[in-house]
Design brief:
Oligomer: heterodimer
Largest sheet of chain A: 6 strands, antiparallel
CATH superfamily of the largest domain in chain B: Probable tRNA modification gtpase trme, domain 1
CATH class of chain A: Mainly Beta
Strand content of chain B: 25-35%
Number of strands of chain A: 9
CATH architecture of chain A: Beta Barrel
Shape of chain B: globular
CATH topology of chain A: OB fold (Dihydrolipoamide Acetyltransferase, E2P)
Strand order of the largest sheet of chain B: 10-11-12-9-3-13
Distance between the termini of chain A: 30 Å
Number of helices of chain A: 4
Number of domains of chain A: 1
Radius of gyration of chain A: 13 Å
Helix content of chain A: 10-25%
Structural class of chain B: alpha+beta
Order of helices and strands of chain A: EEEHEEEEEHHEH
Largest interface: A-B, 28 and 25 residues
Strand content of chain A: 35-45%
CATH topology of the largest domain in chain B: Gyrase A, domain 2
CATH architecture of the largest domain in chain B: 2-Layer Sandwich
């Protein structure tokens, strides 16, 4: 059983036990356009909530991806090295960025659930 | 993540619309602010595919935000030569040149296309196309500097660009005469009492045309071009990546009021006569730079790996000595690799020189590369 939470910066974190998979939402990928490169952090890196976790390069621009909650990077999606377009094709599936071991599950409560995020998108 | 575009779109002042605004919206374009206009940065097709479409078939661009004007009066070509280093008096009617408006230091106020039209009873007539962001100041500068001529901005017109290997066949279905037009020529066609101006020129490195049409006719004509199965609408995103691959300067980035045409590698746009006789703003400096070489030069860079080096990135020697900076950079869809252009000290500007670009603290190996990055395909006769 997993739950997904969202930030106002359009990152998602899909929580499974004490880890969470982080990526960008479908809305975010559609706004970015074609992704041509993703710079991912080293495994073992400890991220504060809101710290820069990755950089995604589209044809047009570089955008920073922030950690939705604090934690240690335990996995990265190596496939993006060869196939950055996965972010556009399947942002919330195969286009995930990294997995973190969540330091403080209470931080998840500061994020939006699916319904709140959909409402947030309507305000943009 | 940061989505700067959507933030600026929300807070920007009211944006102007081109005559094709409704077409862009109807086709699902993502509209962004550009030079005071709401412009399509891409359609649902996406920048990569729009770019490759233009290289392989044809793309239709809305460039109506650019400034069009007529400059008319006695000796108009010779008079405009006092503001630009391009050779205009040798232009015959129906031919055009690329040149630059210069300031007293020989730096670039704007770059523009100048076409000689047929004379009328008042003298010579020139058709100018200038950049959107600079058009008001350009027209004010030209009017103030050449009070003996009449400058008429053409506000009620759209400008479409049809670019790519299929452009000629597509446009010839509507105007058969365009098929054999020389590169950098222009024809005027009267349609229902209005003048249309079609030039064989563009900003992609491909064969193609720019078509100046009355605003009222723009949408229906664009729809007719788009009905051709070889043509797709293309946004400003791909326009930028196409011109970067073609090694063409973007005003405000690769050239501006801190750069001269010689530093920018635009000596080819200054004829022998004008190099020798001068008579344009900053001529003494330009002639000195031609004779002795400029202190810095615009170069192309191929970046190793996949990380784009973008505008502002520092360019260093392999030893870490800063020698310049990137002015345009990104991912080249035709090459599937990052490319950039920028300025470096002339000692490091030779093709093949190994340098590095600094991106987020990382040093990316880069090699000075001749431009265009991809071969151009301008029309050179059938």
């Amino acid at each position: 059983m997993s739950t997904t939470r969202y930030t106002k910066d359009h990152e998602y974190i899909r929580v499974e036990g004490d880890t969470g998979t982080v990526g960008i939402t479908d809305y975010a990928q559609s706004q970015l356009g074609d992704v041509v490169f993703v710079e991912l952090p080293a495994i073992g890196k400890v991220l504060a909530k809101g710290a820069e976790a990755a950089v995604v390069e589209s044809v047009k621009a570089a955008s920073e991806i922030y950690a939705p909650v604090a934690g240690e990077v335990v996995a990265i999606n190596d496939v993006l090295g060869e196939e950055p377009g996965k972010v556009n094709e399947d942002a919330t599936g195969d286009g995930w960025f990294l997995r973190i071991k969540i330091s403080d599950p209470a931080e998840l409560d500061t994020l939006m659930d699916e319904a709140a995020y959909q409402d947030f998108l309507k305000t943009l | 993540m940061s989505l700067e575009e959507s933030k600026t779109a929300g807070s920007a002042p009211a944006l102007l619309h081109t005559p094709l605004y409704a077409l862009h919206v109807a086709r699902g374009a993502r509209m962004v602010p550009f030079a005071g206009y709401a412009m399509p940065v891409q359609y649902p097709t996406g920048i990569l595919e729009e770019h490759l479409q233009t290289r392989s078939k044809a793309g239709l661009f809305d460039v109506s935000h650019m400034g069009q004007a007529l400059l008319e009066g006695p000796q108009a070509a010779a008079r405009l030569e006092t503001l630009v280093p391009g050779d205009l008096t040798s232009l015959v009617p129906g031919r055009m040149r690329y040149t630059q408006l210069l300031d007293a230091q020989g730096c670039i106020l704007d770059d523009l296309m100048v076409t000689r039209l047929e004379n009328d009873s008042n003298g010579e007539r020139l058709f100018l196309v200038v950049n959107a962001a600079t058009k008001a100041q350009d027209f004010a500068h030209i009017s103030a500097s050449l009070p003996d001529l009449r400058l008429t901005p053409l506000e009620d017109r759209a400008l479409l660009a049809l670019q790519g290997p299929a452009a000629s066949a597509c446009l010839a279905q509507h105007f058969p005469a365009v098929a054999t037009m020389p590169f950098m020529s222009l024809i005027e066609i009267e349609q229902e009492g209005m003048v249309w101006r079609i030039s064989r020129s563009g900003y992609t490195g491909e064969d193609g045309f720019e078509i100046a049409v009355p605003a009222d006719s723009a949408q229906s004509f664009a729809e007719r071009l788009l009905a051709d199965e070889t043509v797709l609408p293309i946004g400003l995103g791909a326009r930028d990546s196409l011109r970067l691959e073609a090694g063409l300067c973007l005003y405000g980035h690769d050239i501006d009021t801190t750069t001269t045409p010689i530093e920018a590698g635009l000596l080819w746009s200054i004829s022998k006569r004008r190099r020798e006789s001068g008579g344009f703003p900053g001529a003494a400096r330009i002639q000195c730079e031609i004779a002795e070489g400029p202190a810095r030069r615009r170069i192309g860079l191929r970046i190793e790996g996949k990380v784009p080096a973008r505008e502002g990135a520092v360019i260093e020697t392999p030893e870490g000595v800063s020698v310049g900076f990137v002015t345009s950079g990104g991912f080249a869809p035709s090459l599937q690799a990052p490319i950039a252009m920028g300025y470096v000290a002339s000692a490091h500007a030779a093709n093949g020189t190994v340098l590095q670009a600094v991106v987020r603290g990382k040093k990316l190996a880069a090699t000075v590369t001749a431009m265009p990055f991809v071969p151009n395909h301008y029309y050179r006769g059938s």
